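Repro case for the chain-ordering regression, as requested:
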Amino acid sequence: MKFAVIVFPGSNCDVDMYHAIKDELGEEVEYVWHTADSLDAFDAILLPGGFSYGDYLRSGAIARFSNVMKAIQKAAGEGKPILGVCNGFQILLEAGLLPGAMRRNNSLKFICRPVTLSVENNETMFTSLYEQGEVLTIPIAHGEGNYYCDEETLQKLVDNRQIIFRYHDENPNGSLENIAGIMNENGNVLGMMPHPERAVDALLGSADGLKLFQSIVKYWRVKHVVTS
Amino acid sequence: MYKVKVYVTLRENVLDPQGTAVKGALHSLSYCEVQDVRIGKFMELVIEKSERDIEELVREMCEKLLANTVIEDYRYDIEEVVVQ
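-- result from build under test --
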């Protein structure tokens, strides 16, 4: 299985993402620059965290118009797994691939520390290896992770089980309904503020993020590899 | 040529954490009359005349990029300027 890590000017978690896939997951991975026209060669697409375009105007607002976003829209339509973490999540929101928007953290502080999350839906291509309700320890690092959407959108997210992760012990940023991660209606685009790629080895403090990537591989193998 | 001033603010029902912090600071300076503070963005655009209707053009730019209409409102002033 081949993963793409999209690199925007200002991405800074691209190396962590690459390391998680190559060294911890043991799958193929390549960096893809934001000017790329096609993602046809890849099976899954990862949008890493960072400060694309310096977060000027709004986080993700400018990255959303990069050339590669057309290919991402296409891949999303084809049902390929797309994961946006932190700034990657903000870009997916700005691009309209996920509903809602990000506000500054309630505390106005940039928060960088491990938090606990609960798995709200384990019947997805991103979470199938977790238990329903499993509590994970995964770090966050953001100043704008305060998720917001209107009531109608929230109801849809709840009804379709699109809320995938919620903050467990405490809500670090003030997000609506303790939301930490949501998925699109088709179930192939996930955005989350916590960084699973920074929690792929006990040496890093937690390996709880690894199963997310393993779930993607499992989904892909079941779909694409014929067992003899 | 047009000079366009665009003001982007958080929608009224969206909590503004920066505004709340600034209100707190004003109160601590004993400006207790201050009921509310909302912080927004101000942008000044210089746009040359084209075949497009200027209002339509500005609205389009606001909707597409300058404001995120999920959480933000925008308004603008358009001033026609004569190039010397």
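Ordering looks correct now. Chain A touches chain B at residues 57-58, 61-62, 65, 93-94, 99-101, 103-108, 146, 148-150, 174 (CB under 8 Å).
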